[in-house]
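Help needed: design a sequence for this.
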């Protein structure tokens, strides 16, 4: 369990670093959220979740409509910012 949480923490930190880099490059919050939405769709369609956290995110994505998916993407960006 500890190893999974360590991997998840590293993943959140990685996302935070990428969001921070996008902000420094001049991307707006809306642009970053739109990119997160597109990446979320790609991951949900093409990548099999490797752990329970990824599985939860995929299952949420799968049951969500477009507006809810955009909200999930925005939340992921906020989570990433908090872990940068």
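Sure. Designed sequence:
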């Amino acid at each position: 369990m500890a190893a999974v949480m360590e991997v998840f923490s590293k993943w959140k930190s990685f996302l935070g670093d990428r969001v921070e880099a996008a902000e420094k490059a001049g991307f707006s919050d809306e642009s970053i959220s739109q990119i997160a939405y597109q990446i979320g769709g790609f991951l949900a369609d093409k990548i099999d979740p490797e752990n329970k956290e990824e599985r939860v995110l995929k299952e949420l994505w799968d049951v969500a409509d477009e507006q809810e998916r955009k909200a999930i993407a925005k939340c992921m960006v906020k989570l990433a910012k908090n872990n940068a």
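The radius of gyration is 13 Å.
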